[in-house]
From TrEMBL:
PROSITE patterns assigned to the protein according to its UniProt record, in alphabetical order: ALDEHYDE_DEHYDR_CYS (PS00070)
Oxidoreductase among keywords: yes
Lineage: Bacteria, Pseudomonadati, Pseudomonadota, Gammaproteobacteria, Lysobacterales
Protein name per the record: methylmalonate-semialdehyde dehydrogenase (CoA acylating)
Pfam family, one: Aldedh
InterPro entries tied to this protein: Ald_DH/histidinol_DH, Ald_DH_C, Ald_DH_CS_CYS, Ald_DH_N, Aldehyde_DH_dom, MeMal-semiAld_DH
Origin superkingdom: Bacteria
Record-level GO BP terms: L-valine catabolic process; thymine catabolic process
GO molecular function, one term: methylmalonate-semialdehyde dehydrogenase (acylating, NAD) activity
Keywords, ordered alphabetically: NAD, Oxidoreductase
């Protein structure tokens, strides 16, 4: 049913990928994929059955027997081809993403591009998956390490980056010699499935990459399955904590990137125009649906007088469907998300924060059914208020004040989350002190959203992360491989030792 027009129309069903074939699920449980700007139903996605999950894992397990032996150069060339295909289909991928997720077309292209960077990184696997060698550690003895793949790995991805985050996961897992079972978000799986089609076109063999869809039951099946060796997750703190504990107890390696409350600290010496632009973009871009959104501003000293200018800057942002030219803020992913964000705004008013800009119920001609909330700003916010203590995941910026940089650092370090933070200043001394003393995984200096490029790893910390090793970069190579240490000695007639040696020595 087209929810906007009320006319019954056929919509496609999203397929599963099992053993190299796109197959129709036999599930009796389906969910509509809905355009958040119009409420049009774009497709139907199945919640895979237990047998279908088992089949996907079995396919990956069988494919691992040969894929793990595939020369590293062959693997690298597949991802060289894959990055070329992604570039050629960038416009198509962005259009699909915008239709089902809502973000603006330029932001959708950025979503794809940041994932593309990881694919390019995966193509360099020959240099990334190197072991170590120590020659002649004892008489005629050498020791070296092998970084060997684990087996079947799995990924569970969120709705807010349906291109980038799947591309964080399966390219690096597969490039290191593993096979993979991916569970995309059931809210917007279409762009993920198009990326999967391109991956097969690039040459990924059948069974090496598999896809299942679903909700809690499928997540639990992935956590419990004895043939899955590692699980990577990005999403909410509630679900991520569940996944980490359940999968860890089942003996798996697990990495979970979860919720956040990212603070942007503004010192009075910061470049005012650059800082105001950065705050507005980082708080309201993607309708605030980013785990690295700068959702909390800490204005230090005289910077507190900048609030009227920040409000004026936010008012210039255009709220509209992501497909419309010139849009700055698109819709939230669902009606439930819009109602949740509006509930947070109401709670902020009730708890005494000052509502500087109210984005509820914006006028968006032609898209009256859309899940829109405009830029919203609160000042006078304090710890203990829900709008500070909880992740809103919408276009809401909360502003706190501090008398000094030390007070701002103390405030941030007292917050349980540690995903990202930023400092705006022209003082090198202040920047150095901030980056040294702040207890947050990713730090930006005059950079509002400090997500690292794939040469480095995503390094959220504290309540924002469970697991020791982060996605992509060098850390994820260690996550997806087992280090095997080999100590060897070869004898010839001149070095042959006679007699039994009952000590631990290698001499």
């Amino acid at each position: 049913m087209n929810k906007l027009s009320g006319v019954a129309t056929e919509v496609a069903s999203v397929k599963l990928l099992i053993g190299g074939a796109f197959v129709e699920s036999t599930s009796t449980q389906w969910r509509d994929v809905v355009n958040p700007a119009t409420q049009d139903v774009l497709a139907r996605v199945p919640f895979a059955t237990a047998n279908e999950v088992d089949a996907a894992v079995a396919s990956a397990k069988e494919a691992f027997r040969t894929w793990r032996k595939t020369p590293i150069g062959v693997r690298a060339r597949i991802f060289l081809k894959y990055q070329q295909l992604i570039r050629e289909h960038m416009g198509e991928l962005a259009s699909i993403l915008t239709a089902e997720q809502g973000k603006t077309l330029p932001d959708a292209e950025g979503d794809v591009f940041r994932g593309l960077e990881v694919v390019e990184h995966a193509a360099g696997i020959g240099n990334l998956q190197l072991g170590e060698l120590a020659n002649n550690v004892a008489g005629g003895v050498d020791t070296y390490t092998l970084l060997q793949p684990l087996g079947v790995c799995a990924g569970i991805t969120p709705f807010n980056f349906p291109a980038m985050i799947p591309l964080w996961m399966f390219p690096m897992a597969i490039a290191t010699g593993n096979t993979f079972v991916l569970k995309p978000s059931e809210q917007d799986p279409m762009v993920t499935m198009r990326l999967v089609e391109l991956a097969l076109e690039a040459g990924i063999p059948k069974g090496v990459l598999n896809v299942v869809h679903g909700g809690e039951e499928v997540v639990n099946a992935i956590c419990d399955h004895p043939d899955i060796k590692a699980v990577s997750f990005v999403g909410s703190t509630k679900v991520g904590t569940h996944v980490y504990h359940r999968a860890s107890q089942a003996g798996k390696r697990v990495q979970c990137m979860m919720g956040a409350k990212n603070h942007a600290v503004v010192l009075p010496d910061a470049n005012r125009e650059q800082t105001l632009n950065a705050l507005a973009g980082a708080a309201f871009g993607a309708a605030g649906q980013r785990c690295m959104a700068a959702s909390t501003a800490v204005l230090v000293g005289e910077a507190r007088s900048w609030i009227p200018e920040l409000v004026a800057k936010a008012k210039t942002l255009r709220v509209n469907a992501g497909s419309e030219s010139g849009t700055d803020v698109g819709p939230l992913i669902s009606r439930a998300a819009r109602e949740r964000v509006e509930g947070y705004i109401a709670s902020g008013v009730q708890q005494g924060a000052i509502l500087e800009l109210d984005g509820r119920s914006p006028n968006v001609p032609g898209y009256e059914s859309g899940n829109f909330v405009g830029p919203t700003i609160f000042s006078g916010v304090k710890p203990g208020m829900r709008i500070y203590d909880e992740e809103i995941f919408g276009p809401v910026l909360v502003i706190l004040g501090a008398d000094s940089l030390d007070e701002a650092i103390e405030l941030i370090n007292a917050n349980p989350n540690g995903n990202g933070t930023a400092l705006f200043t022209q003082s090198g001394a202040a920047a150095r002190r901030f980056q040294e003393d702040i207890d947050v995984g990713q730090v930006g200096i005059n950079v509002p959203i400090p997500v690292p490029v794939p040469l480095f790893s995503f390094t959220g910390s504290r309540a924002s992360k469970l697991g020791d090793l982060g996605p992509y970069g060098k850390q994820v190579v260690l996550f997806y491989t087992q280090t095997k240490t080999v100590t060897q000695r070869w004898f010839d007639d001149d070095t042959l030792h006679v007699g039994v040696n009952t000590t631990i020595s290698l001499k």
